[in-house]
Amino acid sequence: MKILSRALFLLFVLVGVLIAVSNTQPVQLALWPLPHIIVLPLYLLVVGLLLMGVLAGLGIGWWVARHHRRRGREASSQAARLEREVARLRDVAGQQPVTTPAGVASLGQKAIERQRALVAPDLAAPAGRGPLS
Prior knowledge:
The protein is 72% helix and 8% strand. The protein is mainly alpha-helical.
């Protein structure tokens, strides 16, 4: 993308130089309500009008994007507010002792006892009697 933008920039500079070199004849520019007549080279008139068009396009684009910028600022402030709230809740949760309901603890204890009952007979088997002894 960087190479493409540089190539386009060089192309526009080349076109601008060609316009400036080949259009040096003077042009009279009269602005209707004013009595003054401005004499300037044709390339300055063309480049000036192009520059005014670019600036007008940038201004219109900036004006149209104001709603998106405002929404972005609001979303950013809301995200910061929510992050502060999360940090506050983590601090509060860190200060309170963790308690588990009695039913959950007894279920966990029962599961451990069942697991021990399944594993314990294998460990408690006598070592003297077996297929390899």
